[in-house]
């Protein structure tokens, strides 16, 4: 009888132990799943908040850069200089010469003819190359369609079709290069407006500095090229004079 009781007790104890192990594993597994889910939820919340606030944060940073330079607050004069400089080059980008008019100065009416003279010259050069390009294209197409016969008496000197095509390509290349030069001239106009605005508003020296150029005579004694002057005691030169008031 005691043996049977011991056997029954042992079997019951084994079942209870297995049940406790399964319960413990299940609790640990459920806790791990809940922890992973909560972590993912937190990450998703952070991502959503970052995406939602990113534009506002970037806008605030850009706005701050307007008023701070290396964490130093800009004064009103510095802000006005930057505004005027930006206005000048942007206006020249829209319309050549507009930024120069914005900057003002005594040479503004000299700059405008130079700027637009460059554009007029570019247009004339473009028309020259384009006219010759079309002329050669027309002649090349005619010779291809008519077994080498020519139609333009001005192009009789081109005996072969290959020479005619090479000349046509050369005119086309020069025409396209004129377009690039025109774009560069436009960019130079923008650069001049920006540079002039910076020099005018940031480095203004007022009327305290005078500058004068006058002709003069320089003595030849002691100069390295004295023997080349054939005994002349003086040579003509130019004198630069700076005066401060």
UniProtKB/TrEMBL annotation:
Domain DUF5683: 87-244
InterPro entries listed in its UniProt record: DUF5683
Domain of life: Bacteria
Pfam families documented for this protein: DUF5683
Name the record gives this protein: DUF5683 domain-containing protein
């Amino acid at each position: 009888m005691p043996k049977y009781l011991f056997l029954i007790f042992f079997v019951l104890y084994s079942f209870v132990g297995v049940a406790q192990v399964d319960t413990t594993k299940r609790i640990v597994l459920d806790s791990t799943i809940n922890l992973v889910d909560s972590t993912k939820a937190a990450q998703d919340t952070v991502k959503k908040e970052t995406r939602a606030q990113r534009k506002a944060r970037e806008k605030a940073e850009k706005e701050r850069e307007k008023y701070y330079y290396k964490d130093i607050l800009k004064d009103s004069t510095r802000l006005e200089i930057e505004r005027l400089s930006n206005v000048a080059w942007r206006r020249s980008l829209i319309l050549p010469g507009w930024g120069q008019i914005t900057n003002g100065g005594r040479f503004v009416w000299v700059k405008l003819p130079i700027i637009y003279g460059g554009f007029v010259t570019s247009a004339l050069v473009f028309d020259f190359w384009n006219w010759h390009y079309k002329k050669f294209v027309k002649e090349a197409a005619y010779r291809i369609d008519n077994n080498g016969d020519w139609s333009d008496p001005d192009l009789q000197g081109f005996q072969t079709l290959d020479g005619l095509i090479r000349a046509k390509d050369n005119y086309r290349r020069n025409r396209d290069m004129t377009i690039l030069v025109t774009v560069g001239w436009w960019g130079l106009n923008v650069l001049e407006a920006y540079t002039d605005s910076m020099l005018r508003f940031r480095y203004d020296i007022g009327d305290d500095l005078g500058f004068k150029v006058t002709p003069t005579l320089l003595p030849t004694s002691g100069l390295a090229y004295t023997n080349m002057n054939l005994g002349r005691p003086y040579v003509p030169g130019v004198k630069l004079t700076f005066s401060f008031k």
